[in-house]
């Protein structure tokens, strides 16, 4: 399982790093103003569907059904089911896309009510949204094919395809911008074009794996009805993080111009460990849990889930405390170029600190949700999700005035923490979660080590690295490398002292693996 998590995580890490390059170009070309706000709102809708379907509800419903069909029947029946799901899904999404293109002005009024006071920003958001929305069809279709590959344990291929999103996005910004009204239009076209590339790569990989996914006449068979019954409530239950982020974006449009942008760049940094660890753990855990439960082996299911908890928190806790402690130099180094100002750096860093508070909870939602989905339960997460959606909305309204750009991220984090606590309690009461005392001790040690690391990093930064955003890029880069290296080394030493990891064994394993290759 660790190998699968690392495989998916490695490709996701590459994708996130390329995403940072893409975001750096967006920051340099557009800064954090009205045009950037308009693009981010235009990207929010298809991106929400991307995360919702690619990492959430669709895989939660499709993968167990496809895996069961493949195991109990045969590959031919599994392919028939995949073709039927593919055809019905595309048909429905094309209809939704056509309606969205027609009524896009009304949709933008709903998702960005604050834009209506600025006609130029509103018109730009409508035009850009019409360009990006077809990406929804392509990425949701790609999610189905990726689900097929994941069920066949081809995790690496499915994860690698998503790298093309950022590759195409970077190319569009660099090469299409001179031919477009502005860089935002080039970025919007890059989003949609990347959808064609991702879907093409995944279809080719499925074909090589023996699954020829084709479009057929859409029919609501019993299998498809069962798929949508399981999928509908899971859209809210699994995609609660994305729904809460969308609510935060809506609230941010009511704040001063640029608030949507500084929150976006903060969230992009926060999404790096979330995407690498949370999505990787959730993607690899679901088929393993499903298989263990199908074989009536609850101990194997508990073991898989506990390993996912352990591996995820081992890296997520220091990432969260680290982001909180050195948010300013990270944002400054990555984005303080071109039109992105020092004020934008400080505002974005403050937003990042609020997001980092909920980072472990965001990851744990990805780890705990498969515990429901593998057992065929998509109803319970939706009930929990509805509660936390309302909680997030209430907290947003409370925080938006006094905290401004920090309010929505803090509301998001608190809602995520509440969500994961309820998920864990419900799983425990159903005897679907059993965390041994030894793992609880490890988690406590990780938390203490992360907290000590945070205190040291903040002290070093304030004593040795003052006015970081005012310095040149080499100074900023040096400070981030030094601080992150110091933090990682300190975290590892403390864990070694606590007995959580053994440095000698770790380096021996790494050396053996290198020599073997």
Automatic annotation (TrEMBL):
<dbReference type="GO" id="GO:0071555">
    <property type="term" value="P:cell wall organization"/>
</dbReference>
<feature type="transmembrane region" description="Helical">
    <location>
        <begin position="132"/>
        <end position="152"/>
    </location>
</feature>
<feature type="transmembrane region" description="Helical">
    <location>
        <begin position="88"/>
        <end position="112"/>
    </location>
</feature>
<protein>
    <recommendedName>
        <fullName>Probable lipid II flippase MurJ</fullName>
    </recommendedName>
</protein>
<dbReference type="GO" id="GO:0015648">
    <property type="term" value="F:lipid-linked peptidoglycan transporter activity"/>
</dbReference>
<keyword id="KW-0133">Cell shape</keyword>
<keyword id="KW-0812">Transmembrane</keyword>
<dbReference type="GO" id="GO:0034204">
    <property type="term" value="P:lipid translocation"/>
</dbReference>
<feature type="transmembrane region" description="Helical">
    <location>
        <begin position="384"/>
        <end position="404"/>
    </location>
</feature>
<feature type="transmembrane region" description="Helical">
    <location>
        <begin position="311"/>
        <end position="332"/>
    </location>
</feature>
<keyword id="KW-0997">Cell inner membrane</keyword>
<dbReference type="InterPro" id="IPR004268">
    <property type="entry name" value="MurJ"/>
</dbReference>
<comment type="pathway">
    <text>Cell wall biogenesis; peptidoglycan biosynthesis.</text>
</comment>
<dbReference type="Pfam" id="PF03023">
    <property type="entry name" value="MurJ"/>
</dbReference>
<comment type="similarity">
    <text>Belongs to the MurJ/MviN family.</text>
</comment>
<feature type="transmembrane region" description="Helical">
    <location>
        <begin position="448"/>
        <end position="468"/>
    </location>
</feature>
<keyword id="KW-0961">Cell wall biogenesis/degradation</keyword>
<dbReference type="GO" id="GO:0008360">
    <property type="term" value="P:regulation of cell shape"/>
</dbReference>
<feature type="transmembrane region" description="Helical">
    <location>
        <begin position="410"/>
        <end position="428"/>
    </location>
</feature>
<feature type="transmembrane region" description="Helical">
    <location>
        <begin position="352"/>
        <end position="372"/>
    </location>
</feature>
<dbReference type="GO" id="GO:0005886">
    <property type="term" value="C:plasma membrane"/>
</dbReference>
<keyword id="KW-0472">Membrane</keyword>
<feature type="transmembrane region" description="Helical">
    <location>
        <begin position="183"/>
        <end position="205"/>
    </location>
</feature>
<feature type="transmembrane region" description="Helical">
    <location>
        <begin position="245"/>
        <end position="266"/>
    </location>
</feature>
<feature type="transmembrane region" description="Helical">
    <location>
        <begin position="474"/>
        <end position="507"/>
    </location>
</feature>
<feature type="transmembrane region" description="Helical">
    <location>
        <begin position="272"/>
        <end position="290"/>
    </location>
</feature>
<keyword id="KW-1133">Transmembrane helix</keyword>
<feature type="transmembrane region" description="Helical">
    <location>
        <begin position="159"/>
        <end position="177"/>
    </location>
</feature>
<comment type="function">
    <text>Involved in peptidoglycan biosynthesis. Transports lipid-linked peptidoglycan precursors from the inner to the outer leaflet of the cytoplasmic membrane.</text>
</comment>
<dbReference type="GO" id="GO:0009252">
    <property type="term" value="P:peptidoglycan biosynthetic process"/>
</dbReference>
<keyword id="KW-0813">Transport</keyword>
<keyword id="KW-0573">Peptidoglycan synthesis</keyword>
<keyword id="KW-1003">Cell membrane</keyword>
<dbReference type="InterPro" id="IPR051050">
    <property type="entry name" value="Lipid_II_flippase_MurJ/MviN"/>
</dbReference>
């Amino acid at each position: 399982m660790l190998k699968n998590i690392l495989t998916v995580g490695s490709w996701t890490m590459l994708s996130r790093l390329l995403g940072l390059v893409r975001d750096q170009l967006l920051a340099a070309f557009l800064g954090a103003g009205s045009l950037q706000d308009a693009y981010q709102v235009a990207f929010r809708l298809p991106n929400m569907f991307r995360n919702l379907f690619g990492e959430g509800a669709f895989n939660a419903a499709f993968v167990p059904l496809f895996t069961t069909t493949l195991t109990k029947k045969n590959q031919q029946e599994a392919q028939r089911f995949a073709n039927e799901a593919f055809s019905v899904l595309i048909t429905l999404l094309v209809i939704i896309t056509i309606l969205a293109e027609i009524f896009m002005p009304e949709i933008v009024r709903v998702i960005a009510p604050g834009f209506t006071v600025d006609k130029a920003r509103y018109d730009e958001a409508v035009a850009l949204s019409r360009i990006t929305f077809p990406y929804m069809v392509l990425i949701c279709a790609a999610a189905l094919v990726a689900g097929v590959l994941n069920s066949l344990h081809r995790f690496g291929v499915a994860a690698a395809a998503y790298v093309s999103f950022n590759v195409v996005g970077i190319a569009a910004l660099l090469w299409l911008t001179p031919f477009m009204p502005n860089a935002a239009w080039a970025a919007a076209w890059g989003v949609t074009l990347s959808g064609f590339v991702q879907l093409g790569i995944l279809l080719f990989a499925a074909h090589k794996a023996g699954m020829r996914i084709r479009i057929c006449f859409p029919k609501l068979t019993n299998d498809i009805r069962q798929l949508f019954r399981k999928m509908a409530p899971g859209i809210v239950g699994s995609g609660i993080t994305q729904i809460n982020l969308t609510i935060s974006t809506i609230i941010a449009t009511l704040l001063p111009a640029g608030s949507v942008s500084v929150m976006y760049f903060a969230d992009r940094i926060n999404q790096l460990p979330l995407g690498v660890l949370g999505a990787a753990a959730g993607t690899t855990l679901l088929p393993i849990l499903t298989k263990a439960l199908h074989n009536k082996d609850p101990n194997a299911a508990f073991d898989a889930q506990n390993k996912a908890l352990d591996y995820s928190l081992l890296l997520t806790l220091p990432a969260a405390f680290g982001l909180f402690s050195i948010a300013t130099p990270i944002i400054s180094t990555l984005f303080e170029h071109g039109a992105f100002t020092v004020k934008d750096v400080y505002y974005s860093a403050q937003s990042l600190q609020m997001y980092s508070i909920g980072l472990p909870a965001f990851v744990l939602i990805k780890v705990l949700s498969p515990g429901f989905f593998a057992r065929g339960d998509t109803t319970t997460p939706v009930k929990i999700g509805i509660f936390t959606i309302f909680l997030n909305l209430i907290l947003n309204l409370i925080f938006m005035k006094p905290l401004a750009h920090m309010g929505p991220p803090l509301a998001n984090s608190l809602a995520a923490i509440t969500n994961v606590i309820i998920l864990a309690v419900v799983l425990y009461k159903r005897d679907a979660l059993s965390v041994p005392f030894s793992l609880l001790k490890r988690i406590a040690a990780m938390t203490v080590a992360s907290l000590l690391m945070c205190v040291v990093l903040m002290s070093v930064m304030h004593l040795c690295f003052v006015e970081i955003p005012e310095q040149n890029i080499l100074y900023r880069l040096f400070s981030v490398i030094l601080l992150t290296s110091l933090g990682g080394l300190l975290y590892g030493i403390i864990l070694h002292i606590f007995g959580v990891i053994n440095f000698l064994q770790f380096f021996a394993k790494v050396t053996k693996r290198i020599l073997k290759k």
